[in-house]
Design goal:
- The protein is an alpha/beta fold and 252 residues long.
- The chain has a single domain, classed as Rossmann fold (3-Layer(aba) Sandwich).
- It contains 10 helices and 4 strands.
- A 4-stranded parallel beta sheet has the order 2-1-3-4, with helices on both faces.
- The termini are far apart.
- Bound molecules: zinc ion.
Length: 252
């Protein structure tokens, strides 16, 4: 009974190696999940950027044959290093780590890696790693910055304020996925804008007051549910296309 359940839900770390051989023969797609451990306002848990893509990936494991890797719970959280509870990995270490993981996955015979990313600070590092890891052979990395690339229409429909760090979007999704990790009584808005990209280690708290960019006060679980359901559908479609050898390229 248990064995059958495992095979239906290919979470990489739960399989024995014979089970892995069987499950990996049924798919060309592996899903790599990248998160962060960083301050998210006073109302969201430090692991927010890991919790959300992990939730999505479990739904992917239920609905597709893609092999889901265990989430990487640390990322480049440079912007939030001054806030308590944040642990940040330096770009060079993160890129090398991603390269090793990607090369390891390709070595197992997968053709595609869907990098399901939960944190903005990781995006450029995933890209740097992918450029190196895909150099040889028929290897493809698709980077999905899920909060931006998935469920675009639904987000436009349900959100009343702009997306951001610990903003209405992230807070709504967390209220649906893990309400026990949300403290709405402590949610308040903060937005510091700039026409330019300001980089200054000693001004992190001025740039992101209380580790917030946006207005979480209008968040609710229904909005989060709508966003997530659409995000999961979008990702399932992407994986099904990849299994058919179709890249997500649109000619205008
Ligand atoms: Zn976040």
């Amino acid at each position: 009974m248990e064995e059958a359940a495992r095979c239906e839900m290919p979470l990489w770390y739960q399989l024995t190696y014979p089970q892995f051989i069987k499950a990996s023969q049924e798919t060309e797609v592996a899903v790599m999940i990248t998160g962060s451990l960083e301050a998210h306002g006073k109302h969201l848990a430090l692991g927010t950027d890991t919790v959300m893509p992990e939730y999505i990936s479990k739904a992917i494991a239920e609905r597709t044959k893609a092999m889901v890797l265990p989430p990487i719970p640390f990322g480049d959280s440079w912007s939030f290093e001054n806030f308590e509870g944040t642990i940040s990995v330096s770009p060079i270490n993160l890129i090398n780590f991603y390269i090793d993981i990607m090369k390891g996955v390709f070595k197992q015979g997968f053709r595609y890696i869907v990098a399901l990313n939960g944190h903005g600070g990781n995006s450029s590092h995933l890209e740097s790693a992918a450029k190196i890891a895909t150099k040889k052979g028929d290897r493809i990395v698709i980077i999905v910055n899920w909060w931006r690339d998935l469920a675009e229409e639904v987000r436009r429909e349900v959100l009343e304020t702009r997306e951001g760090h610990s903003a209405e979007d992230e807070t709504s999704v967390m209220m649906h996925v893990a309400p026990e990790l949300v403290d709405m009584a402590s949610a308040k808005p903060a937005i510091v804008r700039s026409q330019f990209r300001v980089v200054a280690a000693s001004y992190r708290e001025e740039i992101y007051p209380e580790a917030i960019y946006g207005d979480p006060t209008s968040a609710n679980a229904e909005k989060g549910k709508a966003i997530l359901n659409q995000a999961i559908d979008d990702l399932v479609r992407l994986i099904e296309d990849l299994e058919r050898g179709k890249l997500p390229l649109i000619e205008d």
